[in-house]
Amino acid sequence: MTAFPLHLLREAVDLLPDEEAWARFLKGLPEPVRRALFHEWSWQTHGGQKPPKGKWRTWLLMAGRGFGKTRAGAEWLLERIRKTPGARIALVGATIEEAVKVMVEGPSGLFALARPDETPEWRPTLGLLRFPNEAEAQVYSGANADGLRGPEHHFAWCDELAKWKQADAAWDNLQMGLRRGERPRCVVTTTPKGGGILARLRAMPGTKETGGRTDENPHVAEAFVEWAIETYGGTRLGRQELDGVLFEDIEGALWTRETIEASRGRVPFPGREFLKRVVVGVDPPATAGGDACGIIVCGLGRDGLLYVVDDRSVRGERPEGWARAVAGAAEAWGADRIVAETNQGGEMVESVLRSADAWLPLRPVAATRSKAARAEPIAALFESGKAKLAGRFPELENELAGMTASGGYQGPGASPDRADAMVWALSELTVTRGEPRIRRL
Questions:
Q1: Between the CA of residue 97 and those of 70, 106, 186, what are the distances in Å?
Q2: Which of 39, 96, 250, 341 has its CA at a distance of 20 to 30 angstroms from the CA of residue 127?
Q3: Mean pLDDT of the region 281-296
């Protein structure tokens, strides 16, 4: 097949003003050229769909749904087949049926993407694809680890590894047999899912990782992307399924991801009229220019439950800047009180806040215990269903998930500013609610 001059295509694309002009341009091309363009993957790739550079044994392509993982995996494998006549390949899915449906017969599978002169022969009873250059691809199931014990392969494509029922054993057997040729390699295309196999794979020497978000794929329907972001944006599920983020609970975490998800209150939240009392918690920054100022608004609901209702935290502001943000949060929610930690600034914190707005009902508090000791009784309220998140607060949630009972912090940033502010606010509200407080001797 004659190679299409891609540099001319790129020049043409740069000159086209919009998608309608692009469609007219494609329609005007001869049919053989249009077919060649469809099968030419190099000009269609985006971001994490490109194989990693350098030497690697496993390419982990972990991304959001609709990112184009399957297409990238199939195209990489087809390129290996073209360059390796007689290659032996493993196609491993969560089940045989899923492997066939997605990797072989799907719209981004090997059949659909193979060029006309390399269309394979499919033998469904054997689960075998045979290519014109004598390369063969065998379908396997990640639910049957023993099926991968023994066969040898040049290359492998593993789809949705996180779903395999016998993931560890199946992966180990596959790797033992991935030893043919000078450079055996494997591509793994998967959405993130908490569990040992993906964490283990990421830590293995020889693994290179790429990925990305659903909205990075220009070929995904815009209406779907808008709906998905509006519905799930900012949630753990959205960050996992749309952004391709792998969440792993930290050992000893005060807030597990499961607890955080179970704590979602009603959305949209009814508003200020539903709250009997509102407190703004403030964790002032230690420095004037760089750290975040945690500003979290919490309330006591008429149903007797505690709610986190707003995150007004700011970063990089000088004292007068974050003080105005605190005042704005208090005014917006009709706060009954502001609770601000004064360990970092002492009287300066109180002075700055009062200068921003003289009417602020402010109670300065000094931390005499560790962050973990203060947070533990609040975490217990979430576990028991007495405290809720009235919305989605990704940055706050990530900080909560990084706090441990031992007093460590493994979340984003140097300190859990938002989480600390939330703890101060909810601690204040437990006094009004009559919640018993834990006393440490």
A1: 16, 11, 21
A2: 39
A3: 82
What's the whole-model pTM score?
0.55
Asked whether the predicted pLDDT for residue 337 surpasses 80, the reply is yes
352 pLDDT more than 50? yes
Alpha carbon distance 110, 113 (integer Å): 5
Which of the pair, 393 or 27, is modelled with greater confidence?
A: 393
Written as one letter, the residue type at 146 is D
Q: How far apart are the first and last CA of the chain?
A: 80
Neighbour tally for 88: CB within 10 Å: 20
Dihedral in degrees, nearest 10, Cα atoms 108, 110, 115, 118: 180
Residues 233-271, buried b or exposed e (16+ Cβ, 10 A)? ebbbebbbbbbbbbbeebeebbbbbebbeebebeeebee
d(CA 283, CA 105): 55
Locate 258 and state its tokens.
Answer: 């499961």
Q: Distance (Å, rounded) from C-alpha 297 to C-alpha 142? A: 47
State yes or no: pLDDT of 300 exceeds 90.
yes
Q: Helices 347-356 & 319-333, crossing angle to 10 degrees?
A: 60
C-alpha separations of 148 from 61, 62, 170, 311 in Å = 22, 23, 7, 50
Closest among 141, 74, 81, 65 to 106, alpha carbons compared = 74
